[in-house]
Amino acid sequence: MASLLNPSSTFLLRKKIDYHSQRAVSTGSSILITSPSVRSGRGYESCSVVRASSVDRDVLVESSSVNGKSDFGLVGLHHVAILCENLERSLEFYHNILGLEINEARPHDKHPYRGAWLWVGSKMIHLMELPNPDPLTGRPEHGGRDRHVCIAIRDVSKLKEILDKAGIPYTLSRSGRPAIFFRDPDANALEFTQVDS
């Protein structure tokens, strides 16, 4: 396929393009990019328009570099996988106590283990009922000094009330910022930090 392309009509698009709003529309022999939105972040995307000699129209070929380094199209975090010993106990914690909604559209029977997908905003947590290779004892009391997942929320004080009511121990951020750390039933550390919406 590369031999069919003539690189003489290549140009770089020096705009930061949001992958979620970029649309490429072919209009005869040219490529028109409609409504790209500028995103905050590092580097530039580069797009090349090249003429394919086997068809009489332009083809959009995406080649990327960020600060001179190859870019494979990083878009964002999709999900975080969390190991659990007992799926029902973990669902009681994540769904019933913390209020995370179950994503019923995700497959539950495609893996050789039980699991569930939970929504965290537009991202997900994948609970996987598998043996945990990490030690459950000897972990730091403060989850911020251990491997942890950080979830952004609007009101730490309301979550603190929920944890108090459920009898779940927690620690507050040592830096004084509005954040709370606690562990799930399998000793996985979680941080919930308050952000402006």
TrEMBL record:
<dbReference type="InterPro" id="IPR004360">
    <property type="entry name" value="Glyas_Fos-R_dOase_dom"/>
</dbReference>
<dbReference type="Pfam" id="PF00903">
    <property type="entry name" value="Glyoxalase"/>
</dbReference>
<dbReference type="InterPro" id="IPR050383">
    <property type="entry name" value="GlyoxalaseI/FosfomycinResist"/>
</dbReference>
<protein>
    <recommendedName>
        <fullName>VOC domain-containing protein</fullName>
    </recommendedName>
</protein>
<feature type="domain" description="VOC">
    <location>
        <begin position="76"/>
        <end position="195"/>
    </location>
</feature>
<dbReference type="InterPro" id="IPR037523">
    <property type="entry name" value="VOC_core"/>
</dbReference>
<dbReference type="InterPro" id="IPR029068">
    <property type="entry name" value="Glyas_Bleomycin-R_OHBP_Dase"/>
</dbReference>
